[in-house]
Amino acid sequence: FKDRGMTVAVSAAMSEGAEAVICASTGNTAASAAAYAARAGVRGVVIVPEGKIATGKLAQALMHGARVVALRGNFDQALALVRQLVERHPMSLVNSVNDFRIEGQKTGAFEVCDELGEAPDVLCIPVGNAGNVTSWWRGFQEYGVAPELHGYQAAGAAPLVHGAPVESPETVASAIRIGNPARWEDAMNVVTSSRGAIRAVTDEQILEAYELLAAREGVFCEPASAASVAGLLAHGAEGRVVCVLTGHGLKDPQTAMTRASSVIPCDATIDGVENAVLGGE
Q: Could you give the percent of the chain with pLDDT greater than 90?
Protein backbone atom coordinates (compact mmCIF):
# COMPACT_ATOMS: atom_id res chain seq x y z
CA PHE A 1 0.00 0.00 0.00
CA LYS A 2 2.96 2.34 0.56
CA ASP A 3 3.63 2.39 -3.18
CA ARG A 4 0.19 3.83 -3.95
CA GLY A 5 1.00 6.89 -1.87
CA MET A 6 4.73 7.07 -2.53
CA THR A 7 4.45 7.45 -6.29
CA VAL A 8 2.22 10.48 -5.74
CA ALA A 9 4.45 11.97 -3.03
CA VAL A 10 7.65 11.57 -5.06
CA SER A 11 6.00 12.97 -8.19
CA ALA A 12 4.88 16.00 -6.19
CA ALA A 13 8.38 16.41 -4.75
CA MET A 14 9.86 16.43 -8.24
CA SER A 15 7.36 19.03 -9.45
CA GLU A 16 8.26 21.22 -6.47
CA GLY A 17 11.97 21.02 -7.28
CA ALA A 18 13.10 18.95 -4.31
CA GLU A 19 16.71 17.80 -4.47
CA ALA A 20 16.02 14.68 -2.41
CA VAL A 21 13.24 12.74 -0.73
CA ILE A 22 13.63 11.58 2.85
CA CYS A 23 11.69 9.52 5.36
CA ALA A 24 11.88 7.84 8.73
CA SER A 25 10.82 4.23 8.54
CA THR A 26 10.35 0.90 10.27
CA GLY A 27 11.00 -0.65 6.86
CA ASN A 28 8.22 -0.53 4.28
CA THR A 29 8.26 3.23 3.75
CA ALA A 30 12.04 3.03 3.32
CA ALA A 31 11.75 0.39 0.61
CA SER A 32 9.03 2.28 -1.24
CA ALA A 33 10.69 5.69 -0.99
CA ALA A 34 13.98 4.25 -2.22
CA ALA A 35 12.31 2.59 -5.21
CA TYR A 36 10.42 5.67 -6.38
CA ALA A 37 13.39 7.94 -5.76
CA ALA A 38 15.45 5.68 -8.00
CA ARG A 39 12.77 5.72 -10.69
CA ALA A 40 12.53 9.50 -10.52
CA GLY A 41 16.30 9.94 -10.61
CA VAL A 42 16.36 11.86 -7.33
CA ARG A 43 18.39 11.19 -4.20
CA GLY A 44 16.66 8.98 -1.64
CA VAL A 45 17.48 9.06 2.07
CA VAL A 46 15.93 6.86 4.75
CA ILE A 47 16.42 6.91 8.52
CA VAL A 48 15.69 3.61 10.26
CA PRO A 49 15.94 2.50 13.90
CA GLU A 50 19.21 0.62 14.28
CA GLY A 51 18.66 -3.13 14.46
CA LYS A 52 14.89 -2.78 14.22
CA ILE A 53 14.27 -3.18 10.49
CA ALA A 54 13.50 -6.50 8.81
CA THR A 55 16.11 -7.81 6.37
CA GLY A 56 13.86 -7.85 3.31
CA LYS A 57 12.97 -4.20 3.66
CA LEU A 58 16.54 -3.12 4.34
CA ALA A 59 17.74 -5.03 1.29
CA GLN A 60 15.20 -3.26 -0.92
CA ALA A 61 16.20 0.20 0.26
CA LEU A 62 19.90 -0.52 -0.20
CA MET A 63 19.52 -2.08 -3.64
CA HIS A 64 17.56 0.92 -4.89
CA GLY A 65 20.54 3.08 -3.98
CA ALA A 66 19.12 5.02 -1.06
CA ARG A 67 21.37 6.43 1.63
CA VAL A 68 20.32 4.39 4.66
CA VAL A 69 21.08 5.81 8.09
CA ALA A 70 20.67 3.59 11.17
CA LEU A 71 19.61 5.77 14.08
CA ARG A 72 20.43 4.78 17.64
CA GLY A 73 16.84 5.39 18.66
CA ASN A 74 13.29 4.44 17.71
CA PHE A 75 11.00 5.37 14.83
CA ASP A 76 9.35 8.25 16.63
CA GLN A 77 12.72 9.87 17.32
CA ALA A 78 13.71 9.31 13.69
CA LEU A 79 10.59 11.04 12.38
CA ALA A 80 11.05 14.00 14.71
CA LEU A 81 14.63 14.46 13.48
CA VAL A 82 13.65 14.10 9.82
CA ARG A 83 11.04 16.82 10.28
CA GLN A 84 13.77 19.11 11.60
CA LEU A 85 16.11 18.20 8.75
CA VAL A 86 13.67 19.15 5.98
CA GLU A 87 13.40 22.61 7.54
CA ARG A 88 17.13 23.07 6.92
CA HIS A 89 17.59 21.47 3.49
CA PRO A 90 15.71 21.28 0.14
CA MET A 91 14.40 17.78 0.81
CA SER A 92 10.82 16.54 0.62
CA LEU A 93 9.46 14.56 3.55
CA VAL A 94 7.56 11.54 2.21
CA ASN A 95 6.24 9.99 5.40
CA SER A 96 2.47 9.78 5.80
CA VAL A 97 2.40 13.29 7.28
CA ASN A 98 2.72 14.26 3.60
CA ASP A 99 -0.86 14.57 2.33
CA PHE A 100 0.11 13.35 -1.12
CA ARG A 101 0.74 9.96 0.49
CA ILE A 102 -2.83 9.88 1.76
CA GLU A 103 -4.16 10.87 -1.67
CA GLY A 104 -2.41 7.91 -3.28
CA GLN A 105 -3.28 5.39 -0.61
CA LYS A 106 -6.99 6.22 -0.60
CA THR A 107 -7.30 4.35 -3.91
CA GLY A 108 -7.27 1.09 -1.96
CA ALA A 109 -10.79 1.93 -0.80
CA PHE A 110 -11.88 2.54 -4.39
CA GLU A 111 -10.51 -0.82 -5.46
CA VAL A 112 -12.21 -2.78 -2.68
CA CYS A 113 -15.58 -1.19 -3.48
CA ASP A 114 -15.13 -1.82 -7.20
CA GLU A 115 -14.16 -5.46 -6.65
CA LEU A 116 -17.02 -6.17 -4.25
CA GLY A 117 -19.56 -4.10 -6.15
CA GLU A 118 -20.31 -2.27 -2.91
CA ALA A 119 -18.59 -1.20 0.28
CA PRO A 120 -17.85 -3.78 2.97
CA ASP A 121 -19.67 -3.45 6.27
CA VAL A 122 -16.39 -3.50 8.17
CA LEU A 123 -12.76 -2.93 7.18
CA CYS A 124 -10.08 -4.35 9.51
CA ILE A 125 -6.64 -2.79 9.16
CA PRO A 126 -3.29 -2.76 11.01
CA VAL A 127 -2.37 0.59 12.56
CA GLY A 128 1.16 1.91 13.01
CA ASN A 129 1.72 5.52 12.01
CA ALA A 130 -2.02 5.68 11.20
CA GLY A 131 -1.62 6.98 7.65
CA ASN A 132 -3.34 3.99 6.08
CA VAL A 133 -6.47 4.03 8.23
CA THR A 134 -6.69 7.76 7.49
CA SER A 135 -6.34 7.27 3.74
CA TRP A 136 -8.84 4.41 3.50
CA TRP A 137 -11.47 6.49 5.26
CA ARG A 138 -10.82 9.38 2.89
CA GLY A 139 -11.27 7.02 -0.03
CA PHE A 140 -14.52 5.62 1.31
CA GLN A 141 -15.84 9.12 1.93
CA GLU A 142 -15.07 10.14 -1.65
CA TYR A 143 -16.76 6.96 -2.84
CA GLY A 144 -19.85 7.96 -0.89
CA VAL A 145 -19.83 5.05 1.56
CA ALA A 146 -19.14 4.68 5.27
CA PRO A 147 -18.12 1.22 6.51
CA GLU A 148 -16.92 0.73 10.06
CA LEU A 149 -13.13 0.90 10.31
CA HIS A 150 -11.55 -1.37 12.89
CA GLY A 151 -7.88 -0.62 13.48
CA TYR A 152 -5.53 -2.98 15.31
CA GLN A 153 -2.30 -2.10 17.06
CA ALA A 154 0.20 -4.49 18.61
CA ALA A 155 -0.25 -4.62 22.38
CA GLY A 156 3.34 -3.52 22.94
CA ALA A 157 2.90 -0.53 20.63
CA ALA A 158 -0.67 0.63 21.22
CA PRO A 159 -0.65 4.36 21.95
CA LEU A 160 -4.04 4.98 20.37
CA VAL A 161 -5.59 2.26 22.50
CA HIS A 162 -4.08 3.60 25.72
CA GLY A 163 -4.49 7.26 24.85
CA ALA A 164 -0.83 8.09 25.48
CA PRO A 165 2.46 7.75 23.55
CA VAL A 166 4.52 4.62 24.17
CA GLU A 167 8.12 5.61 24.83
CA SER A 168 9.73 2.27 23.94
CA PRO A 169 7.33 0.31 21.72
CA GLU A 170 8.09 -3.39 21.29
CA THR A 171 6.40 -6.00 19.13
CA VAL A 172 7.29 -8.78 16.71
CA ALA A 173 5.28 -6.81 14.14
CA SER A 174 8.08 -4.39 13.23
CA ALA A 175 6.04 -2.43 10.67
CA ILE A 176 3.68 -1.18 13.39
CA ARG A 177 6.30 -0.74 16.12
CA ILE A 178 5.43 2.94 16.54
CA GLY A 179 4.79 4.70 19.82
CA ASN A 180 3.50 8.09 18.69
CA PRO A 181 1.62 7.96 15.35
CA ALA A 182 1.98 11.00 13.11
CA ARG A 183 -1.70 10.72 12.10
CA TRP A 184 -2.97 10.26 15.67
CA GLU A 185 -5.72 12.88 15.53
CA ASP A 186 -6.83 11.82 12.06
CA ALA A 187 -7.06 8.18 13.12
CA MET A 188 -9.20 8.97 16.14
CA ASN A 189 -11.48 11.10 13.97
CA VAL A 190 -11.85 8.12 11.63
CA VAL A 191 -12.86 5.89 14.52
CA THR A 192 -15.51 8.37 15.61
CA SER A 193 -16.83 9.09 12.11
CA SER A 194 -16.98 5.45 11.04
CA ARG A 195 -18.40 4.18 14.34
CA GLY A 196 -15.37 1.94 14.47
CA ALA A 197 -12.71 1.09 17.02
CA ILE A 198 -8.98 0.90 17.67
CA ARG A 199 -8.00 -2.21 19.63
CA ALA A 200 -4.85 -4.06 20.64
CA VAL A 201 -3.79 -7.61 19.77
CA THR A 202 -0.95 -9.50 21.41
CA ASP A 203 2.14 -10.72 19.58
CA GLU A 204 0.94 -14.29 20.09
CA GLN A 205 -2.41 -13.48 18.49
CA ILE A 206 -0.61 -11.82 15.59
CA LEU A 207 1.67 -14.81 15.07
CA GLU A 208 -1.23 -17.27 15.26
CA ALA A 209 -3.05 -15.33 12.53
CA TYR A 210 0.21 -15.08 10.54
CA GLU A 211 0.59 -18.87 10.59
CA LEU A 212 -3.11 -19.47 9.94
CA LEU A 213 -3.10 -17.33 6.81
CA ALA A 214 -0.07 -19.15 5.41
CA ALA A 215 -1.21 -22.67 6.27
CA ARG A 216 -4.93 -22.43 5.47
CA GLU A 217 -5.29 -19.63 2.93
CA GLY A 218 -1.98 -19.84 1.08
CA VAL A 219 -1.34 -16.19 1.91
CA PHE A 220 2.15 -15.33 3.17
CA CYS A 221 2.10 -11.90 4.78
CA GLU A 222 4.44 -10.17 7.20
CA PRO A 223 3.48 -10.25 10.90
CA ALA A 224 2.18 -6.67 11.03
CA SER A 225 -0.24 -7.46 8.20
CA ALA A 226 -1.71 -10.32 10.18
CA ALA A 227 -2.79 -7.89 12.91
CA SER A 228 -6.00 -7.22 10.97
CA VAL A 229 -6.95 -10.91 10.93
CA ALA A 230 -5.80 -11.36 14.52
CA GLY A 231 -8.09 -8.53 15.51
CA LEU A 232 -11.04 -9.99 13.65
CA LEU A 233 -10.52 -13.40 15.26
CA ALA A 234 -10.16 -11.88 18.72
CA HIS A 235 -12.92 -9.30 18.62
CA GLY A 236 -15.24 -10.34 15.78
CA ALA A 237 -17.29 -8.16 13.42
CA GLU A 238 -20.70 -8.39 11.80
CA GLY A 239 -21.59 -8.33 8.12
CA ARG A 240 -19.24 -8.38 5.16
CA VAL A 241 -15.70 -7.91 6.47
CA VAL A 242 -12.51 -7.08 4.57
CA CYS A 243 -9.12 -7.51 6.24
CA VAL A 244 -6.27 -5.53 4.73
CA LEU A 245 -2.93 -7.38 4.57
CA THR A 246 -0.37 -4.67 4.07
CA GLY A 247 2.94 -6.43 3.34
CA HIS A 248 4.32 -9.67 1.87
CA GLY A 249 5.95 -12.26 4.12
CA LEU A 250 9.28 -12.01 2.34
CA LYS A 251 9.59 -8.52 3.79
CA ASP A 252 10.41 -10.22 7.10
CA PRO A 253 11.91 -13.67 6.39
CA GLN A 254 13.49 -14.02 9.84
CA THR A 255 10.12 -14.41 11.54
CA ALA A 256 9.05 -17.08 9.06
CA MET A 257 12.22 -19.08 9.65
CA THR A 258 11.72 -19.04 13.41
CA ARG A 259 8.07 -20.14 13.19
CA ALA A 260 8.09 -22.64 10.31
CA SER A 261 9.06 -26.31 10.31
CA SER A 262 12.72 -27.21 9.85
CA VAL A 263 14.22 -28.30 6.54
CA ILE A 264 14.69 -32.09 6.40
CA PRO A 265 18.12 -33.21 5.08
CA CYS A 266 18.54 -36.60 3.40
CA ASP A 267 21.04 -38.69 1.47
CA ALA A 268 20.90 -38.78 -2.33
CA THR A 269 19.39 -42.29 -2.41
CA ILE A 270 15.85 -43.54 -2.96
CA ASP A 271 15.76 -44.91 0.57
CA GLY A 272 16.95 -41.61 1.98
CA VAL A 273 14.42 -39.59 0.00
CA GLU A 274 11.61 -42.03 0.77
CA ASN A 275 12.32 -41.88 4.49
CA ALA A 276 12.48 -38.08 4.42
CA VAL A 277 9.24 -37.78 2.45
CA LEU A 278 7.24 -40.34 4.39
CA GLY A 279 8.76 -39.58 7.77
CA GLY A 280 8.89 -43.19 8.88
CA GLU A 281 5.26 -43.96 7.97
A: 95
